[in-house]
User: What shape does this take?
Amino acid sequence: MGSDYFASALLTPISRLFIFYQMLFSITDIKIGYFLATRQIKKASFWTTGLIVFVMVLTFLNLVVVSGILVGLIEGSIAAHHNQYTSDIMISSLDTKDYIENSASIVSILKTLPEIEQFSARFAKGVQLEANYQTKRETDKPNVASAQMIGINPQAENQITGLASHVVDGEYLTPYDYDKVLIGQFLLDQYLPVESPGFTTLKNVGVGTKIRIKLGDINREVTVKGILKSKVDSVSMGMYMIDSQVRELIGRQDNNVSQIAIKLKEGQDPLQVKSQLLLRGMDKLAKVQTYVDAQPKFLKDIITTFAILGNALSSIGLVVASITIFIVIFINALTRRKFIGILKGIGINGRAIEYSYIFQSMFYALLGSGIGLFVVYFGLVPLFAAHPIDFPFSDGILVAPLVETLIRVGLLVLATLIAGYIPARMIVRKNTLDSILGRN
Amino acid sequence: MIQVTNLIKTFKDGETETKVLKGIDFRVENGQFIAIMGRSGAGKSTLLYQMSLLDEPTSGEIIIDSQHAHAMTGDQKTKFRLVNCGYVFQDYALLPELTAIENVVLPLLMQKIDKKTAYAKAQEALEKIKLGHRLKNIPSQLSGGEQQRVSIARAIANHPKILFADEPTANLDNESSKIVMEFFLQLHKEGQTIIMVTHEEQYAKLAQKIVKIDDGKIISITENKV
Assistant: This one.
């Protein structure tokens, strides 16, 4: 008797759960719901359906594109930093040194690695540039700007970073140029007019202008051969010169350089090559970083910030879409209240009617998302890749990873289903006869 | 088959209470064709809605097919209506987006009848009422009489125990009304229990029994010699 009691005590909740499950997911209800939904959608007004689907497409685009552009803005900046400055791997001097010790042996190793396509060794040193010194009166404030002087082999550097393509005025350096420099746009007043005590630019400097490099007691007059325009600060705030002359200027007797930017062959993994370099003990002589490691920290912080911001904006979009669907389904169900009453009257289960509205909501959400996916992957992503948005500090692209996008589709569909179910349930629960007769 | 005892229905509108049915006692046997008559507002449709389980009475008892209506839950009543009742409404009550055959097949599919059989039964019902050529038409493409016949086909497709009809000829011309009534008579001959509300005496006379209602009470029950 005791065991019977316990068995029945255990069975009761299980059987109740089973009955509840059957009530909730009756195949017949689902089939009838689908039957009604497909007929309603087929016979619905083209313009009404079009408007609802249009709202869903806009919501989807809001979900994907807003955060995608915010992230893409930074991704554009990261890509530019990668392509125009660090390349795939960057070897730079240790924090305690001005240069990479034993650079020659590092260069020899790099030449032996088959994964490496090309590298560019750079000398780098902070200097002060002065312009208009010929016409300056004793009492005038000198026209100076701080810059990073970068000594390069023009051919190697161009192969690695395409530096020549960033010359917007004048010409790129040749190995035979003497006392000629390329100067970044952010060092020039006509490109970056700022009035800040902590940041100064050179006025009235263009191609052909003579400027002075000041490094300690050394002053050297050079001629501006070209002006560089880039959204990478390291480029646009740099002054480029032939490596041998920089080496001479900074008084380096050895061949130790400050940075080596390495470009890998197509398909090579920067992490793997970095590991190889570390295995050879290179970390004792220099910092070895992949382009990801070498990203400025503020970029990483901005990515996180923009991702949060994008999600917040997307959430608002999701709520707006849910409310829209709620209103649409509510009005639809309200105007069809009489027919809902008739359906219940002739014996159609209320849950089947609710399913019909869920299917309709699903149709709107899936069609809207489908069109949205098409617009994003066959329209906007290629469009922004070909014509990036010209933001002040980066060329913004649209970042829409497929998995994340599909998660957003899932969220949109779920929100829409809930938003469609609630008003349908509200109307279905009303008294059958009141619905048929249109009584309140 | 249906036993109604001391049935009372009161409508409330704020403070105002209107007693529409004032203690109805009434019995319908299997296979009977009953016409409920009365002037407008007498309570005849209200009585039909209570008997057909579309509404809840304020008090009183309805026993339908040996089941106590008050003991049934909402879902049980819906299922009961699906299996045992057929409905014909004054305004046809067809779903506008469904074709004639889809309107008829819907309750059959809900009864878990397989699709092929359900469509065959629906077609049979529509052919029986001479609408075999209008299967794929939606209600807006049909005349009033044709719509009412689709509604009847939907009501009888699965051979319900009771057919409830609320003013089935009220919106129809004479010709269509005659067709509908002739069909009701044919169904009755086949043994179908029919309870019909009407205010048209000529059609009420076709029923076996006329129940006259006035001011919420039965004032007479007359046997017809059909």
Observations:
- Residues 105 and 122 of chain B are 5 Å apart (CA to CA).
- The radius of gyration of chain B is 17 Å.
